[in-house]
Amino acid sequence: MGKVTAAPSHVVHIRTKPTVVGVIDGTAADSGAGRYRRLMGRGHGEDAPVAYLAAGGVWPDGQLVPDAPPSASAAQHLARTLHVAMEETGTGQRALAAATGVAHTTIGRILAGAVLCDIGTLAKLEHALGRPLWPGHAAGI
Questions:
Q1: For residue range 111-123, what is the model confidence (pLDDT) as tens digits?
Q2: Where are the beta strands (DSSP E) in the chain?
Q3: Angle, helices 119-129/104-112, rounded to nearest 10 degrees
Q4: pLDDT, tens digit, for every residue of 38-90?
Q5: Is 0.85 surpassed by the pTM of this model?
Q6: From the CB of residue 55, how many other CB atoms can be counted at a distance below 10 Å?
Q7: First-to-last CA distance in the chain?
């Protein structure tokens, strides 16, 4: 596994509804950083990939709902292939993070279907693991 030096990765955090983090109501929870904030969605109206699992499904092997966006299927495929590649190479999340510059928490979120992986992060993961993770990607990494 080669060492990749690069800036930390960026992932797309997906939310469809604003989330209330705090409320201004004069209580103790109203002070400081607990003030009202909204977390804005950046996923073009899509939920996290794992949210598109059919009832009873387990990520990443479960069936997706019929109207799941293509990004959910792509994220599911990536989570599967990344997991297999990590197992076959004996590479854990922290070791992969050290080799790629991608935070181990980001790798965990990709594996869990909580985020969509960006192209730069995908390239770093493929390079460090020495194999393609994206469907149809040539082996010349």
A1: 999 999 999 999 9
A2: 12-13, 115-116
A3: 100
A4: 232 345 678 999 999 999 999 999 999 999 999 999 999 999 999 999 999 99
A5: no
A6: 7
A7: 13
User: 12: helix, coil or strand?
Assistant: strand
Q: Which domains does the chain have, with CATH numbers?
A: 45-129 (1.10.260.40)
Q: Could you identify the residue written with the tokens 């009202």?
A: 36
Packing angle of the helix pair 93-100, 104-112 (nearest 10 deg): 120
Residue type, 59: W
Residue with the two structure tokens 């977390």: 39
**CB atoms near residue 87 (< 10 Å):** 10
Cis, peptide link before residue 60, omega less than 30° from 0: yes
Question: SS3 of 115, please?
Answer: strand
Confidence of residue 136 (pLDDT cuts 50, 70, 90): confident
Exposure of 42 in the CB half-sphere (CA atoms within 13 A): 8
Residues near 3 by beta carbon (within 8 Å), at least 6 away in sequence:
98, 99
